[in-house]
Amino acid sequence: MGYNILVTGCGGDIGQSVGKILKSNAIAQKVIGSDLNEQHAGKFIFDRCYNIAGCQSKQYLLDLERIIKEESIDLIIPVSEPELRFLSNSNIISLVDRPIVMANIFSRIIGFDKLATADFLRDQNLPYPNSSVVGDLKNPVFPLILKSRDGSGSKSLFLINNGNDFDYYSKKFPDFIAQEMIGTAEAEYTCGVFRSKDGESRTITYKRKLVGGFSGYGSVESDPEITDLLLTMAEKLNLRGSINVQLRTSPKGPCVFEINPRFSSTVMFRHLMGFEDVIWSIQDALSLSLAEYLPNNNYKKFYKGYQEYVD
Q: Which of these three, 86, 102, 118, is where a domain ends?
């Protein structure tokens, strides 16, 4: 039996990757997209795309309710962080009245706040980068990273090498956090972690190279120390659903510097290699048996490419 599934944020790369996964799988009968914008390639992927209001608008829920009714939606997958934050409100979830595929609330609280992430790791006696609000840092040790407390990606991230730069950026971004520089870019990993409501955890780890702020290249790595850390984190978070974990190896051991409590830009690569966390998340949300985890060893490396569409 296939389900009618709504993917919000269908104009972005993650939403379109999720759409492609669903269109190729029998679990989906109809795949509908929604987005703030109309000028995107989602219309080449989804059965239909709807233009909706932003989640800050009172019109947003009305738009969702209209799509749910018109398309007989069975399940919703939000992929954009603003919508994930908004839909974390239990009262709003009851208004939508459909299963929503997203990580559990505690994982979202921790992952959406970069300082809370470091504090959580410290409290669980796991390796963590020393982190503090910029205004509370008295004796900075360089190099360090300044980053938005609630942002993701590299748009709101600055490498600080000296006191002059620190003074400039700390005045410009007083609410940012200052974080210890961990390891090197050559020792950076991006990891997928899925855990079901029954407590079954599955992981995949890539050693990656960033290109333009995104994972442009990666190779599958089997590192027992990293896997053990991911499994421990999933248990401590009481994770249900799928998250993306970014870490670097260091003298402290594998050290997590970011938890993204959502599907990530590597979701399609993971799916092609047998880590089908989108499908598992849907099955878990609908209380269906999970498909087996069968890693596809034919694909050891991934490369981020581009596709053009002409209408």
A: 102
